[in-house]
Fold each of these.
Amino acid sequence: MNVAFVNYHDFTSNSAVHIFNLANELVDLGCDCAVCVPNRVETIETLGTPRFEPVDFRTAARRGLRFPDGGPPTLIHAWTPRETVRTMTEELAARYGCPFAVHLEDNEEVVAAQHLGLSVKELLRVSSRGIPQHLSHPARVEAFLARAAGVTVIIDRLLEFVPPGTPAEVVWPAFEPELFRPAPPDPALRSELGIPDGCSVVVYTGNAHAANAAEMRSLHLAVAAVNRVRPLKLVRLGRDFYDFLGSVRESVERHVVRVELQPRARVGDYVGLADVLVQPGRSDPFNDYRFPSKLPEFLAMARPVILPNANIGRYLRNEEECVLLDNGDALEISAAVERLLADPQLRERIGRGGRAFATANFSWRRSAERLRLFYEQALQRLSPNASAPESDLGPLRTLGACDAHPRMG
Amino acid sequence: MTARVGRYFGAVATGFLCDVSTRGVRRLQKLAFVRYAVKARWRRRRRRRVMEEGAPANPPIPRVPRGVEPKGQPLVSVITPVYNTDPRWLMRAVGSVRAQSYPHWRLCICDDGSTNDATRQALSRFAGDAKVTVVRSESNSGISAASNRALELADGDFVAFLDHDDELAPDALLTCAWVLGEKPDTDVVYTDEDKIDRWGRHSKPFHKPDWSPELFRGVMYVGHLLVVRRSLVEDIGGFDSAFDGVQDYELMLRLSERTDRIEHVPRILYHWRKLPGSVASSTDAKPGISFLQAAAVNGHLRRRSIRAEAQPHPTLPHRVVMHPKPRDAWPSVDIVIPTKDAPHHIGRCLDSLYRQTAYPNFHVYVVDNGTRDPDALLAIRSSGANTVPFEGPFNFSRAVNYGVAAGHGEFVLLLNNDTEVVRPDWLEAMVWLAEFPDVGAVGPLLLYPNRTVQHAGVVLGIRGTADHIMRGYPPEADGYAGSLACTREVSAVTGACMLVSRDLYHELDGLDVHFATHYQDVDFCLRLRRKGSRNLYTPRSVLIHHESASRGAHYDHLDRALLLDRWADTIARGDPYYNPWLSLAGSDYRVRRRAA
């Protein structure tokens, strides 16, 4: 089976990490893969050595996709329905006459509306012609999904967007065990970053953009607030595409250690500096439909993770595998951080619980196996010889990649 | 005309452009997107501003969605007692009911023995109207009895009260029915109102707070329009003739003893006719009403087993003042005062506290953040107060929490060292209110040294966060319909002088230590509200506050950011005790220029 992934951004994006690991695992499982990104194909080096062919859009359009068997793609997997991906996917699908699947990892309506400063209702009224390439328009997404052979989603809540009758599967992200493992903080790295002795550390790896600006502000304010009680540094990997600090920048930034873009192999070292890890946020139409891909990595580090009672937080046990936030405001985050910093045994216990959850539920290999099965079932449904009743074609999954269930209530 | 022509040519031009070609349509679509893009940029900037600077100035005002029928469509019977009413006003009143946009109503009129032929003739005109029922008493029995007779005619689940010369706004019943449909448990709905004169001119809009039972014990602010579940009115036996003149106030007091499912609609849906001799024209129009009001409140206090006595306000008409009854034992109060040096402040504060306070059961805890000034040390040591040493950099929240932890009293009173007690009964006036099980924090009237108002409660949204209301007012003023002169519900009170039970204080883990200088009191009060407590301001307790004399002009922007991060949504929704039609640009209850 030849699978071509189409991503909306180069290999520095979080989504590219998912694709990179899934594609590599699929190759090991006997599939052949190609991954198309809009440009800067050389950024693959930040992730490691691929077992698939990375290619940019222009090259793919000019000379086509190449697979080891010399054949065309069996299926194209559009990674999000954003305009740039949708356009490329439909172009490739038409060229090769093959079906495509779509992967959802966000509430695209909310993301687009937030970026454009519109309400979702207003977004629906905007002509789809004017939508920027890096976003998606609800009307086009609907049509795109309706034509898809199947839909994969990163978290179960996104199944709400899947058209009735379309095969769907939940594919959780995972972590690389060799990069994200329990290990003591590297004192040399602490020293290199100028973190003084006795100062606790929170690490955050992720970008700031319009959709998560408020929660990024909460995280940074929380760090400044904790510093009124005890010293704490926020080691920050990721870029800012939105100014979320404004007038408090001065009083907050002195507690933040900025780290430039790091190779994937180094990210675990930085995360390992943390005494506590925080994924800020609160249950809302943005957070309920996403799965912050850093969370499997955070949990795998055996550090206590503070996260909102939304998305993957619904699967984790509060005070055993993580600390859940009710409101997600800065003061709640700071109180949770201080409580954990003051109690090493609690940190150790919750960190251990989180690690156990991560190892039991997050695996790129298992996610890839599930993905391959999903491809086979989706393709079988399209086959003119498919005579078996729908129920025999395999379940249209509605569970997580680990078959875990959300907590009740 | 010009506008109509403009619209016509606009439509023609649009049609022409659309017809020219598909490309034209595309251009129009692109133009539409540009329009949205411009709007979006403005919104992004506003969102960032709101995130940094606080809530937008004007909270939203709820509206009835167009074309949506209220759920359940309850039948509302309008109750109108009539006595010798000028037919002009009677016809206006009835006409305003007939003109309602909501069709499910009945009008129940009781003619209370009118001797005026014109009134009787006017009433006879409604004979053919199936939705209007008129019943006549042979003799004049008073407004309560007449209202009760009209109530007997009522049908449906709800009754509304309309005086014989007033008018309803066209959407009055529709709006109330919509609220009742959205919140089907609601028992009582009241709306904003204004005055209307004989020429139909509107004036004196009254923008009321949301249901405030404590304020209601001091002033009849609910007024009109009042819509009540009929079964509830019947259960309490309707109006009481002994209170004619304040019969609606007395009725509402009894209703409030049965239900707290009381909704306020912040829209002017009732027009109160201002005629010579009516209360609408002058508060002096009906002398003696204040005594009846006090009697009604005393009955209410007896029924609720509240150990207090109501009396008419000594200077303001139609206001009631409550005094706690004398008792043998009062609960213990720990007064916590953080301080450092400032001998003139702490000396004056402690001196006035011990010299002026009549309250029999209090202990003072001075949280000393490293005082070295010998005069200040002498003032503290000679006062008899307990000293709680507090090391480290000054943090008001932590200092207060530290002081509270040192005591054991049933109540804790946070007090700034730059305050000065001026009335002996100041503490009783706060404690008896804080004893109510549903009351959180209680704050007093604080005055600047020049004897103008410094604190009479905190309103959410002023300056983007929260600020004191009625700063600079003379303390003897009434405020906005009793907002200064009467004890009332507020969103927050100042931490410069705040009384709260020790249990509640511990339940909320005290003041949040992450607020170094500002807003820990607002945050604490909002947390009290979130857990269902009411916060009260009382003008019966008065102190002088030499505000920020010890703190200086420093403003902590991180404190502000932390408050907004936690409470921006709450603040943006608007202060329930400060009507959304009132401006947040000032602190004086002026009506805002334009609705949201």
Amino acid sequence: MTRPLVEVRNLKMHFPVHAGILRRQVGAVKAVDGVSFDIVEGETLGLVGESGCGKSTCGRAVLRLYDITDGEIIVDGRAIGQESQMSLRTMRPTMQMVFQDPQASLNPRMTVGAIIGEPLSEHTRVSRAERIARVGELMDQVGLNRTFVNRYPHEFSGGQRQRIGIARALALNPKFIVCDEPIAALDVSIQAQVVNLLEELQDRLGLTYLFISHDLSMVRHIADRVAVMYLGKLVELAPRDALYDTPLHPYTEALLSAVPEPDPAKAGQKRDRIVLQGDVPSPANPPDGCNFSTRCPRVMEVCSRIDPEFREVQPGHWAACHLHDSIRPSGTTRRHTEATTMVEPNKESNP
Amino acid sequence: MPDGDTRNVLEVRGLRTVFETRRGEVHAVNSVSFEVKPGELLGVVGESGSGKSVTMMSLVGLLPSPPAEVREGKVLLDGEDLLQVTPARLRDIRGSDVGFIFQDPMTSLNPVFTVGFQIMEPVRRHMGLNKKQARARAIELLELVGIPGAAGRLSDYPHQFSGGMRQRVMIAIALACDPKVLIADEPTTALDVTIQAQILEIIEDLRSKLGMAIVWITHDLGVIAGIADRVAVMYGGQIVEHAEVFPLFNDPRHPYTRALLKTIPTVSGKRAAKLQVIEGQPPMLGAAPTACAFRDRCPLAFERCHAENPQRETVGPGHDVACFHPLAHTAKEGAA
């Protein structure tokens, strides 16, 4: 197997909470709390979860847009976890980002040409003519008309603005792009256009994506492997088909069953869908044991005491759940007895 | 689905709404007609800018005028034309006979009043209850929408509720005076899928309990497939296709509906290698339509589409389409 382009080990991003007159630190919001994954060159890793689960923070932390609390990040063979922001600048051309809201991430006072060309003048020493040529080339690549180069962002529609953001991310020939909800602000018919563009560019330029989204059906379309996040932690990571066909974690199961299907016949059968009760707990004050234990329909006694380990349950299929403790590949079965003494799940759910 | 009762509680005929802006007119709603029966849920789907919200806000005069102006049409609520009544009468109807749920519960609740006050306000205004009765009614409503510890939460402010809970409060307010028609404008769009599933369940439950008519606006075809009895598809300020939910999803006849259904990926079933795309952009509505709004993006457009605006014509029982060459029946028809 090829060496992963991106390796993330035990990534933690805690934001301090200050209170009182002296602004003493009284706690921390554990937005990302010990996340590990690899992304192989040329693949798309989907990162899904509900709002507030820490998926965007995770994406930004991987690119070191934050100074991370703890953990290791290796991108293209270089450990960037603890490097200073100044020395990271030489690394920036390799890793880029496409943001969620194209309206907010484009400077309204800059022309499209200036926006797309800015990374070039910032990181390279190309001449003006070369830069203009490269901007034109990039606009062709993302399907924008070259004649619009002197227009301003407000003159474009949402889908076109997202293309500008993609062109800017491509300017320096990156290897790795974090796409943070790139289609969430777009209409359905426009979403498909942007997703197809991202896929085409990946084929043509050999890009590697971390695709962050809350839209499970779109992630199923674009991702090769999918990671599910809940309250700052990964609960499941698996190849796409394995995750959607045989989810191992009860949260993934509930999330998938909550997605409305655009087919009335299926919607009718889905009456036995799992409806999770309650809301996501606050990441400043996560529950003891498993983070999902407060809403889990298959919660057991052990769940509120011991945080389950994120481990490879089947080859390539990782999950953090006590339900799968009995199948320990390493041979230890010490939690086997606990796993069988299941607490009766909530009445509506039938696993 | 309610049969037998054929009376329409809400009937909209030929509604046209125009915005007068400095850059000229915008024809947001063009001759929209639809009707809802008691206990029925009509889904209205369309992309942003297709005129879904403006249509619904025109019904009860929620649009600021100017710039908005309802030029033509009839809005019959139990036979009474809401476009002809006095502003005072309209104020009585809003909040009592017609309830509204908006997309974003944070911006539609007032942050400086308690939730209890905001639920009691319409009850006292429209039903003439005193403070004590209104309080009892508010508790009853919060329990109805599944807020635990209802009595204790009346004195809480909106920011003390989570997104899903706020949307439940909005539903409680909309239901406060037993409306005949509930208009829900993208009520779950701002919510996460697991919370959306909770809200959908509540709505289903309330519909069977209270039997009001619901108009549900959304851009999410998945949501519509699960809850609607009938569906109207809007494009460019017009209803381009209208049918019961099974024929609409299994046998769409308008090229736009079919294309829209093909662009969305699903979480189960076959995974397409490449997503189908509707090329181009939705139209700008600078003038009253003189041609089909979808012509520039339609793979089947021919001369007549550029010269004339197609009207809705019946293609099957309860199924009508505004297209000069509605697509043929598909083989999948038996799936229903």
Amino acid sequence: MSEPNIDEAVVRPGEALDLPERAAAEHVTLNERRAQQVIAMGGGDWAEVTARAHAEGDDDLMVINMGPQHPSTHGVLRLVVELRGEAVISCQPVVGYLHTGIEKSAEYRTWVQGVTFVTRMDYLSPIFNETAYCLAVEKLLGVEAPPRAQALRVLLMELNRVASHLVWLATTGLELGALSVMLYGFREREEILDILEEITGLRMNHAWVRPAGVSQDLPDGTEERVRRFAGDMRGKIDEYETLLTRNPIWLERTRGIGHLSVDQLTGLGITGPMLRAGGVAHDLRKAEPYCGYEQYDFEVPTATDSDVYARYQVRIAEMRESLKIIEQVLDALPDGPVMIADPKIAWPARLALGPDGLGNSPAHVQHIMGESMEALIHHFKMVTEGIKVPAGEVYTTVESPRGELGYHVVSDGGNLPYRVHVRDPSFVNLQAVPVMMNGLLMADIIAALSSIDPVLGGVDR
Amino acid sequence: MPPETATQPPDALQPVLTGLRERFGDAVREIGGHRGEVTVELDPASLVEVATWLRDDPAAAFGHLSDLSGTDYPERPDRLCVDYHLYSREHNVRLRLKVRVTVAEPRLPTVTGVWPTANWHEREVYDFFGVRFDGHPNLVRILMPEDWKGYPHRKDYPLGGVDVDYIGAHVPPPDTRRYKGGWTST
């Protein structure tokens, strides 16, 4: 690999080049001085330790490394925090610890196999990844999934949105000391994961949405189960609200924390609940409807304060809206196939849901193994070589629980994607960290970071 | 499959495309459409000027840079391609800007001054494709380790089969990797 020889000043992450000039100069000399300074922290009274630290340096700036293994950084996020006492002077996020090269790997697998890669990115909202990717492939192919498949995608996406917001609520509650909310949030999420397992065969990483359809229809009895869940869930959300919405500690910890103005939100490209908590009623489900979202009646919740509490309000309201959509999907679920009829695109295997979560379709096996040589050849070609997608490039988006999830997919006309680039909302939203944290107290970092709801699997890809 | 028809840009984009042609003339190399999406290929030198106009002109109002992604087309002389996916909340339209640079001179002006969100996106494109964004406030690798050699998303970079070097540690490629109380190569 020959690298062009271009001289450039390399600045390490955490060195905060965006500080004003004077502060930056001060910062560098401080860092140099700090590098010489050794303070033994072998125990003893804290006042003595800090007094010793103060005596050796003439400043009270302190750099703290938070993460990449830290329980409240939502995965392997690293924050380099500079403190003066308890006050945050700067906070620089460092990412990349979970990079797995999914985008590169996808270039070496067929179009259908791509689904199994992308579902592993943002592991709290796998259905959104799958749908956004499949919408891109469908747009390149110039086809649409059948209406029943579209409706089922919406159903699972909204279930997934509730599950994702529940994890957000649970972990944020935990980090701010509301332990019961953590227990309740994960309890209800478990029910959603059970439903998803019943439908797709897996709790996570479903690979259930396929180009031009979905892999399986709903099993018998699932509709009732989802309906029951949606009914129960409303009461559960009320319970969370009684615990938190007027809880003085919760209010104290969340109000006025992590404020971002609309200009900052727009400039930083922030989308999703964070943008809506700033008063901008932008939701891609309304702005650029996909999968038939225009048929469903739901609101886009907004708040005005643009702080951690406003984001909490928006997410709680969004869960209620998702339940509304889930019920409407079930009321108007169209009949018909869940995979496109075109045999040159549709996945040939007719998998039935068996006790092992997958199982086989005896009728299909009988057909290809016993009746038709052509069907066997077709099945074999479709599975090994896969579909061919016409050359071109598209950018498709869905509204994931964290904001705009975009897929820039390029095809050269072959059976493998030429390029799959993912605009993960967590990746973009994390850029708000340095802006949000300035002037906060150390303890507020946890609340502010959590209000971004980053998923590092999506950030690092 | 519906036949591929000549793409008509959305009505809201017409004044933008007209404005681009009038104001920037030769800097606009090509305006193309595919599957309902409009792509404007630009001369890299005029990128910031065009971007600023697209953000500020009320007919365009592309205040939101959705995505910024790189692609490598090794068969072209200017093989590194960078796409800017713009979105206008006011007009609810999207537009893609495309610029191409060579591997020998992989330099582009930064658009962080126009859309601050480009900061991490440009670091990612630098990390994966080696495109230098002049004027970027902190152009360092973002997802790969800081001391990584090479640009993994270029098409001539292999998938796997490479040595992994960290500061103070070396891991041989997977196909020759053996663990004997530490990683060694066969």
